[in-house]
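Incident log, structure service

09:12 report received: a user says their structure output differs between two submissions of the same chain.
09:20 pulled the input from the user's history:
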Amino acid sequence: MTTPAASAKDRVLIAAIGDEDTITGLLLAGIGNVDNKQKKNFLVVDSKTQVSTIEAAFQDFTERKDIAILLINQHLAEKIRPTVDRYEQAFPALLEIPSKDHPYDPSKDSILKRVQKLFGDT
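09:34 re-ran on a clean worker, output below:
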């Protein structure tokens, strides 16, 4: 039987779903990982990437037991907003981040909205 603390300590990776510039920067910072089954912890999204591919990567990353944090470009989170809004797990923590071409918009961040609701700020 695995305890919650034990499962949390096994979460050692940061996953990312983003545009090429964002993922390149994160890989240069050292977050990249490819396991022995050739599963990556990142998805590079371009104009040809289908929404279903982004959604599948989101589902995969949120179900993996080795990922502690999932970073996603906010403009990509908008493409799968219903899925992002339904996600309520503590691990992996979900963070929406800006990209070079798309600045951060706090009014679109579902996690920030939940925090504001929790503290009574609306």
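09:41 both user submissions now match this output. Likely a transient worker issue. Closing.
09:42 reviewer note: The first strand starts at residue 13 and ends at 18. The chain has six helices and four strands.
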